[in-house]
Amino acid sequence: MSSLACRQHIGRDANGCRHPSPPACHLVTAAVDRSGSMVSMGGAPPRQIHDQIKQLAKVAKQLNVATFFTLVTFDDTHEVPINQLNLQTDKLPTLAFLETHMAPRGMTKLYDSGIFALSLLNEQQEAYFAKLSKATQFLNPEIKTSYVLLTDGADNASAYNGRQRHYEALKKMQQENGTMAIFLGANIDASKTGGDLGFSGSASIQMTPTFEGASQCLRAVSHTLRRASTGSNNQSIEIDDDQQQVNYSPPTSPASKPPQMPSRVLLRRY
Predict the structure, then answer these.
(1) Pick from 204, 180, 186: which is nearest to 194 by CA?
(2) In this structure, what CATH number is given to the domain that contains residue 171?
(3) How confident is the model at residue 21 (pLDDT cuts 50, 70, 90)?
(4) Rounded to an integer, what distance in angstroms lies between the CA atom of residue 72 and that of residue 116?
(5) Residue 265 domain-assigned?
(6) Domain of 167?
(7) Quick check: 126 and 173 in contact, CB under 8 A?
């Protein structure tokens, strides 16, 4: 189906009701914890991020929506193994690449890594708009921004007042750019932690620290991001999983020793 035909196809439903138009561009940034305790999730995050990228790329090509994906990983520090990947044209990363760069290690620099990811997303939005022609800028095209933060524990490595700094940075992005923000938390009270960081209650998801739990939550996030690429304003996250935790309970035993990561990270080498 051509991009024009596809746009006409999604323009109205069978009853003639108009659907929302896709954005001119969709910028997605995911900041994912790779601290040592993430080993309990059995490799679910890299697998689901891999599927998420493929699904977003499919939608980007079908709707002809410029879509860019950035991955920030963090433990004691943060790194950017994927920086503004063009999902319409660039070669997609392999699962092996993601497994290497998301292998568990170290501590949890949650707040500062999230702030870094938000600043990166904001810079990308400004840079994309600046490259548009003056005529296109005058039309004020929609540049949708989405931010996903995933962790399985409380921050133990950020600088002073990190929680408040993240809250302020996220609120600014939401007010100025309409950023869609999703928080996934395991082994913590996700609703409280997400709220403290600036996420809405409906977008702060309690995640079971298992392969199945992480997979279910990340699949739900993928569906939400796909809807955002079509122009839908429905940002609700629906998780159909009886294993999801309703109440927070701290872990009863320490995580096993995580695998070691290579000391030098090579960016965007797929």
Answers:
(1) 204
(2) 3.40.50.410
(3) confident
(4) 9
(5) no
(6) 25-230
(7) no
- In 3D space, the residue among 220, 155, 148, 225 whose CA is nearest the CA of residue 184 turns out to be 148
- Contact status, residue 37 vs residue 50, Cβ threshold 8 Å: no
Q: Is residue 163 part of a domain?
A: yes
Q: Report yes or no: 37 and 154 within 8 Å, Cβ to Cβ.
A: no
Chain centroid, CA 14 distance in Å: 32
pTM of the model: 0.82
Give the tokens for residue 185. Answer: 């938390």
Residue 183 within a domain:
yes
User: Is 259 a residue whose pLDDT tops 70?
Assistant: no
State which amino acid sits at residue 243. Answer: Q
Q: Which residues contact 243 (CB under 8 A, 6 or more apart)?
A: 208, 210, 212, 213, 216
The answer to the question of residue 198 being in a domain is yes
C-alpha 270/C-alpha 39 separation (Å) is 23
Coil vs helix vs strand at 147: strand
What pLDDT, in 10s, does the model give residues 27-66?
Answer: 999 999 999 999 999 999 999 999 999 999 999 999 999 9
Listed residue (259, 248, 262) closest to 39, CA to CA: 259
Closest CA to 238 of 205, 270, 198, 208: 205
Q: What is the pLDDT of residues 107-164, one digit of tens each?
A: 999 999 999 999 999 999 999 999 999 999 999 999 999 999 999 999 999 999 999 9
Torsion of CA 159, 160, 166, 167, to 10 degrees: 170
